[in-house]
Amino acid sequence: MLIDGRLVDSTSTIPVINPATETQLALAPDCSDEQLESAISAARKAYPAWRGLGIEARRSLIQQMAPRIEAHVPELSRLMTLEQGKTLAAAGREFDSTLRFMRGLGTLDLPEEINEDTETRLSVTRRVPIGVVAALSPWNYPVLLSWWKVVPALLAGNTVVLKPSPLTPLTVLRIAELMVDLLPPGVLNVLSGGDHLGPKLTAHPGVDKISFTGSTPTGRRIMQSASSTLKRVTLELGGNDAAIVLPDADIDLVVPQIFWSAFTNSGQVCVASKRIYIHQDQYDAFAKKFVEFAKTVKVGDGLLPDTQMGPLQNHRQYEAVKALIDRAKSQGHKVLFEGEIPDGSGYFLPVTIFDNPPEDSELVSEEPFGPVIPLLKVKSVDEAIARANASPYGLAGSVWSSNPEEAMKVASQLETGNVFVNEPFYLTPFAAFGGHKQSGIGIENGLDGLLSFTNPLTIMLRRG
């Protein structure tokens, strides 16, 4: 672990499992209570000087982070595949995105707003850092979603305690090793630990802001723990994203894209398509093409060159998705397609496609976070919009059409934070990303994301 500029071990450990083999890959440090106190104390001690550096000096140091990662991408990609399960190609894409976001987020500036400038008064609002940020990243994109938080938090002048998921700590810890001498001691601390660590970190009175990506139930618990000291929170939570295929969509063109919008990273993507609404005039043709494409997809160990989809990341998620599929079958919901998986061990589940289950079924109303999708038949575009919006979640959605203007009209009616038109999903460091309803609170990325790591400070000067 990285604490106060030093690499430290721990007396206890947590096992890290390779999801493709179900065997122990490594032992990671299990942060003790004393080490947690040391990390937060180091972050608090480092905060005044880091804040005082000014944004340009901080930017100069932050800009050196990406090259350190870039020089080790082959090694880091293999390590990510071993602990997370995604293919080597997918791991490489995660690092491409991480570097793109690190460099893009590092160019943002904090605004200064002049509210009044007269002979008698000057009023100016500046953005100032909050203090110590606890950044908690998930297991599906452990590196990308860590540095979504770290870069803007540091740029704004905060210090950070980063905690990756206990299921995927290794790649983040390795990156911390690469950066041990880059920043002043205490500015960035990286801890690993079991399920005990997150609640202690988020409830700690020495933490001023929490940035968390994960499930909605965990987000609710974090809000409760943050309430005792009124910590600022950014919560990027679950979604049940709808894809709407308009009647004029080119089926041959959109089927492969929609397939991967649902099954990238074995469906373990917060903005993945999780239910697909297709106009009844297109439904049969779409379903046929969708199944035909699914038959071409190879599921296996992510280290193998011909693998296109790896295992689910962990045993708990594997059991949850498997149980969801089994319940749906027992309730009589028709399976259009169920793919093949490799023999032997590993948390592998087949690509599973259901044929028009009821809207109130668990398949439609809940986020599976795995390789399962329902195809849903609608009579009109208005029906598709209404059914898409009838959810407590509102993270993202997509619209597919040969008519961009019509697709934009539909997109503007979806009650989500993000809508992708004619592409699976596209995120940029320069655009706000966040959820509506129970998909989260606050914003990541773009200027709004940077500002979420600040407080406004308004200064009023009486002249004369």
**CATH T-level fold name of the largest domain:** Aldehyde Dehydrogenase, Chain A, domain 1
Indicate the percent of residues in helices: 25-40%
Distance between the termini: 55 Å
Specify the CATH homologous superfamily of the largest domain.
Aldehyde Dehydrogenase, Chain A, domain 1
Strand count, sense and barrel status of the largest sheet are: 7 strands, mixed
Strands in their spatial order, largest beta sheet: 14-15-16-13-12-18-19
| CATH architecture label of the largest domain | 3-Layer(aba) Sandwich
Assigned CATH class of the largest domain: Alpha Beta
Question: Using DSSP, what is the number of strands?
Answer: 22
Quick one: overall form? globular
Number of domains: 2
Mean pLDDT: 97
Instruction: Return Rg in Å.
Output: 23 Å
Class by alpha and beta content: alpha/beta
Strand composition percent: 15-25%
Contiguous low-pLDDT stretches (5 residues minimum) are none
SS element count, helices: 16
What does this 3D model show about the protein?
The chain is 38% helix and 23% strand. It has a 7-stranded mixed β-sheet with strand order 14-15-16-13-12-18-19, sandwiched between helices. The chain has 464 residues and is of the alpha/beta class. The protein is globular, with a radius of gyration of 23 Å. Helix 4 crosses helix 5 (88-105). It folds into 2 domains: 2-237 and 439-462, Aldehyde Dehydrogenase, Chain A, domain 1; 241-421, Aldehyde Dehydrogenase, Chain A, domain 2 (3-Layer(aba) Sandwich).
